[in-house]
Amino acid sequence: MKKRTKKRIALGAMAGIGVVALVNIVMAWSQYATSDVEYDEIVSNVHISGDPVQAVPVEERNEGAEDDFTTMDDGPHYDIGTYPNLDVDHAALKAANPDYKGWLYVPSLEISYPVVRGTDNDYYLHHTFEGTENTAGCIFIDSGCAKDMGDYNTFIYGHNMKNGSMFGSLRKLLANSDSIVEDPYVYFYTEDGVYAYRTYSFHKVPPKSDYFEYAVTQRKYWSYVDMALEDKALDMGISVDKKKNSVTLSTCSGSGEAKQRFLLHAVNVGYYKPV
Question: Distance (Å, rounded) from C-alpha 222 to C-alpha 152?
């Protein structure tokens, strides 16, 4: 009799765990759906308008932290070229959220989202662009980075969503890198201009890693790029000009004790004025 009772209790407990797990899954996907609806509405107003734009020449920029290592260059700078003619209403996005800083567009990974920068790195982990509390969060720039992409390396974070939204497509690169090889470019659109970057490395790292340290001098930035090239999962076949700054996209990879971070590093290859 006691054995039957224990068995029933065990089965009841297992059933209870299963129900809780199912409820959590349903709630997660419900929040994903809510987030998708919000971003689909925002993205519907952003589109490619015609052929790539020939960049208007821009004077070389010298921004970033002061450097005590060399007098050759006192900060990252940008070249000229072409970029996709993406039509973004920055004024409307900024009116909707004053934390809005620009639009991130990675064609090969189907990433096209507004990007914010808050006063900390916690709020937008759990709130959407419109401020709705949601586990999907929002894509955001590290609060310790400059507001104008002027640092040696700018970190941009986004959730690794199971439905592939946000930075969910990054995880696919280790299994199939064809898309990023064919089109390695990352674009960041702002009111003042368009930044173009070319991917030079992607890989996994532990949650607590030297990769998340700010490069405040040119010496540290050069070391950072060398480290990223050394750890690359795939040779992208490009030579990195370390006088130019970078952007690093970061998302979670795995779960539990095996949880890591997936990083994609891209070096600046253009800064363009809007036409």
Answer: 9
- Taking the CA atoms of residue 157, residue 194, residue 70 and residue 208 in that order, the dihedral angle to the nearest 10 degrees is 0
Ranges of each domain in the chain: 2-272
Please answer whether residues 228 and 200 qualify as being in contact, where contact means their C-beta atoms are separated by less than 8 angstroms. yes
> In angstroms, rounded to a whole number, what is the distance separating the alpha carbons of residues 118 and 103?
15
Phi-psi region of 152 (alpha: psi -120 to 50; beta: other; left: phi over 0): alpha
What local confidence, expressed as pLDDT, does residue 37 receive?
Answer: 76
**CATH superfamily name and code, 2-272:** Sortase (2.40.260.10)
Please check whether residue 137 is in contact with residue 228, taking contact to mean a CB–CB distance below 8 angstroms: no
Characterise 222 by phi-psi region: left (phi > 0), alpha (psi -120 to 50), beta (else): alpha
Return the structure tokens found at 90: 């920055």
Burial class (CB in 10 A: 0-12, 13-18, 19+), 61: middle
- Please list, in sequence order, all residues whose beta carbon lies within 8 angstroms of the beta carbon of residue 202, skipping any fewer than 6 positions away: 170, 173, 174, 177, 180, 232, 233, 234, 262, 263, 264, 265
φ/ψ of residue 165, rounded to 5? -75, 180
pTM for this model (two decimals)? 0.79
Strands (E), 25-66: 47-48, 53-54
Amino acid present at 14? M
Question: What does the alpha-carbon distance between residue 273 and residue 189 come to, in Å, rounded to a whole number?
Answer: 10
CA distances for 5 relative to 11, 13, 14, 17, 245, angstroms: 10, 12, 14, 18, 66
Taking only the tens place, the pLDDT of each residue in 8-44 is 555 555 545 454 333 333 444 455 556 567 788 887 7
Window from 52-61, 150-159, 215-224 with minimum mean pLDDT? 52-61
